[in-house]
Amino acid sequence: MKTPLLLGHRGVRPTGPLRLKNDLPRENSIPAFEYALTRGCDGLEFDVHHTLDGRNVLWHDHEYCGREIAATSFNNLAGSRGIHPVCLEDVLRQFGERAFLDIELKTGGGEESVLAALEADAPERGFVISSFLPDVLRRLRELRSDLPLGFICDRKEALIHWRDLSIQVVLPHNSLVRPELVTVVHRRGMQLITWTVNEPDRMRQLAEWGVNGIISDDPKLLYQTFHSR
User: Fold this and answer.
1) Which domain holds residue 169?
2) Are the C-beta atoms of 70 and 52 separated by less than 8 Å?
3) For the residues 113-122, what does the mean pLDDT come to?
4) pLDDT at residue 147, rounded to an integer
5) What is the DSSP string of 77-97?
6) Cα–Cα distance between 135 and 155 in angstroms, integer?
7) Which partner from 23, 45, 49, 94 sits 20 to 30 angstroms from 183, CA to CA?
8) Alpha carbons 143 and 160: distance in angstroms, whole number
């Protein structure tokens, strides 16, 4: 069994047993990414939104501290303690030489600025730009023909769309993954990375089926599942 690429979901997230830990860093943050890498992960998955003034910031939800990210300038996007979300450029600069990066675009409209950031600090350990939104992936493909792109889906009825997109990676929720899907994806010369997997038995099963990557909330558990011996 080949060990798949091991990726920390937003770096790390307080789910399952991790909920009991009070010292975990905030997800989608530099400390969260350091946490994932120091516990053995090969790379990171994270979310990107675009601010009103065209900055690429890391956050999962459409609002940050009660403010809609797309309608707020970066300087005004801060919490009560004055903490801004991390910028994509900071992540590329600090982790581009150390980690595989799964850059999930949550919205459209900022594709050009994302590509500009990648051209300024190209990741050296590999990357994929992923999205639930086919139109975002189509726009990225128009801008660059050689860009590694991935389609994310969490519903069976949406899964069929991966066949119609110019992508290199399929990223289904792990509940949708079956051996037959892995085989079909590989036959088309693509990779399959799945999320969010937090149970060791499921991690091992997916690896046995030949998935190329596993995204987990618990980087330490993910690593130890494949390297405990």
Assistant:
1) 5-227
2) yes
3) 97
4) 97
5) ---TT-PPPPBHHHHHHHHTT
6) 17
7) 45
8) 24
Cα separation, 89 vs 198, whole angstroms? 29
Residue with tokens 């596993």: 214
- Give the ranges where 85-211 is alpha helix by DSSP (H): 88-95, 111-120, 134-143, 156-159, 179-187, 200-209
Work out whether strand 56-58 and strand 43-50 pair parallel, antiparallel, or are unpaired: antiparallel
Question: How many CB atoms neighbour CB 195 within 10 A?
Answer: 23
- Which of the two residues, 122 and 80, has the higher pLDDT score? 122
Let me know: does 119 contact 143? Beta carbons within 8 Å: no
Q: Name residues whose C-beta falls within 8 Å of residue 198's C-beta, 6 or more positions apart in sequence.
A: 15, 16, 216, 217, 218, 221
**Residues, the chain:** 229
Q: What is the mean pLDDT of the segment spanning 10-39? A: 87
Supply the CATH number for residue 150's domain.
3.20.20.190
Number of domains present in the structure of the chain: 1
User: Is 0.85 surpassed by the pTM of this model?
Assistant: yes
pLDDT tens per residue, range 119-145: 999 999 999 999 999 999 999 999 999
Please tell me the predicted confidence (pLDDT) of residue 79: 74
Average pLDDT, the chain: 95
